[in-house]
Amino acid sequence: MRIARALLLVALFASGCTQYQPFDSTAYLRQELAKRLGAERAGAIGVPFELDQSLRDYLATRLKPSGGEERRAADIVDFVFYDLDLQYRLRPTRNAVATFKAREGNCLSFVNLFVGIARANRLNAFYVEVVDAQRWSYAQGTVLSQGHIVAGMNVAGHLRTYDFMPYSPKSYRDFQPIDDVTATAHFYNNLGAEALLDGDTARAAELIRTATEIAPRFSKAINNLGVARMRAGDTAGAESAYRRGLEVEPDNPALMTNLLRLLQQTGRRNEAEPLLAHLEELKVSNPFFYLYRGQEALARGETQKALEYMVEALRRESELPEVHVGLAQVYLAVGDLDRARYHVERALKLDATHPEARQLLAMLSK
Length: 366
Hints:
The protein is of the alpha+beta class. The chain is about 65% helix and about 10% strand. About 40% of the residues are buried.
């Protein structure tokens, strides 16, 4: 009887193993998107971490989905960080498959690939936003908002994070795990911000609108939607977006800076002054507020004041090309060509395609 019971337990266990199916996070995400957007609209949304069959076949030759959790996690880290020889590029943001094919991408691109590969190997990988390490871009006087995303995994009961951004030492303190729906909104927001930087306003508006539909309270996308509307000449729509974003996040410096510029441009100085005073009081960490103030001062011919603002922007973020371009413009205005050239070269080292930096380099090379 005992032998029979033992054989029955073995049979049940074996049957359970053969019927086991891993959790399909791609299908689950599509279900969640369909609830928010409707089935037809959700069907057009790309899943950023989804792997195609050719990539899965390749992974089967390189990684074994067996062994302990620690071993599998170490194998995936070695594979993604070292074996693939991935190169960091600020733009463009890519999904998992495109990142694998190009062997390059930014932080979100790498996380898309990492999450897809880890989940294919039975590991609980997820997206994590670093709240105290936001990313911004600055063009035509407006601030675009993007988050800094890293990968997270629970391995042997411990949360581990994996950061793909180079340059500066990591001293993050505020991590916020986000679900796949929010991560997909980040993905579309990044694509929209990049389209704005490339001057494709129509495509940008469509991508960013998608991000706000996926996550209606995603303040970064709401801010960028305002920028897209402003570029299209829809001042009222832009203001509406900025104010809606400030209802979600009242002290968001990007939203306040963009609204401030809109109010100043439309001659509403009485409304702009309290907002400017509030921004000054906040001692904001956003470098583009100081960059914006520096450009205002430079336009008035107040070069010393402009330099003070630009230095303040640099103190807050030394690894953004726009800050170095701003400093180069000030040094060019005061005739310090050596320092102007240094900051132009620094900007191009951070982003070799930056249009304003390339223009300044051409000017300085004459």
